[in-house]
């Protein structure tokens, strides 16, 4: 297989911007060549938030958001091309995840919905675009998530000890890579989502920079235990979740009849994220030097990273950047890789992770 260039586009549950990554793919060799973080306008983010937490909406609203996001993703790609010096005709395809507005993987009518019109992306960039990655897996009985463990398996290897790749975005998910065993992966629960929302409500800042608000508080053990009683945590894998469950209304319901300072809630939410991650990671320890490699926005929260290290004292905890993969652009790189798999008709899901009945090449191709 000869070298090809792909661009991955990722707008996650945090909705703090659009990450773009330009990669070269040559067989199993994947190299990040350029990246960018394109801002999402606040009014658009708020409209999306309203849909994601289940507020009543209309088909007109969904249609308009789909259109606006299509242009936003296309603009993000074009900005990356301008910044990097690469031309559109050098790029084999774009892998565009889209913005998840609802994810309901279980029940009588399981579905997942990512919007951001890929026709607009392809037309405005002049680059073939792969989108709608998750629904084929769900059609095969899977959760449609997480999809990144297959990518993690390609770039990280386990020899005699467990390697777990932890992505802390809005939601936290893990990929478990063990010697001589199948890869596992699932969402552990909230990552930055609740901390970001609470911080913005009480300080006006979109996230808790350096964990400053959390440092001012202490863990409220009663509240922490109440948060940990959420039934999601007792469900077996495969499992996945999102903003449709963990959101500010969910947190507000947990705070009814409780008097807790804003700083104490923030510190408790940080501990909540750390504990729910550590409980799951600890189950998969094997070998003398297990590693927890962390990517996503959570790596920039020193309070959270310190708590993970403390709770997982037997593990080597470090950002993936220390191992040669930029921790901020891991997911965008993953969707560039998934696009490459789709272009070449290669399977890109792991049934043992998602619960699908068989491997499949995921995504729908939109021609420029």
Query: How many angstroms separate the termini?
Result: 23 Å
Succession of helices and strands: EEEHHEEHEHHEEEHHHHHEHEHHE
Strand elements, count: 12
Please give the largest β-sheet.
7 strands, mixed
Low-confidence stretches: none
Mean pLDDT: 95
- Give me the Rg, rounded: 20 Å
Number of helices: 13
Shape category: globular
Outline of this structure?
37% of the residues lie in helices and 21% in strands. By secondary structure, it is of the alpha/beta class.
Description:
The chain is an alpha/beta fold. Helix content is 37%, strand content 21%. The protein is built from 13 helices and 12 strands. The strands form 2 sheets. Strands 1, 2, 3, 4, 5, 6 and 12 form a 7-stranded mixed beta sheet that branches. Strands 9-8-7-10-11 form a 5-stranded mixed beta sheet, with helices on both faces. Helix 2 packs parallel to helix 3 (118-125), helix 6 (193-203) runs antiparallel to helix 10 and helix 8 crosses helix 10. The chain is globular and about 55 Å long. The two termini are 23 Å apart. The model has no long low-confidence stretch (mean pLDDT 95).
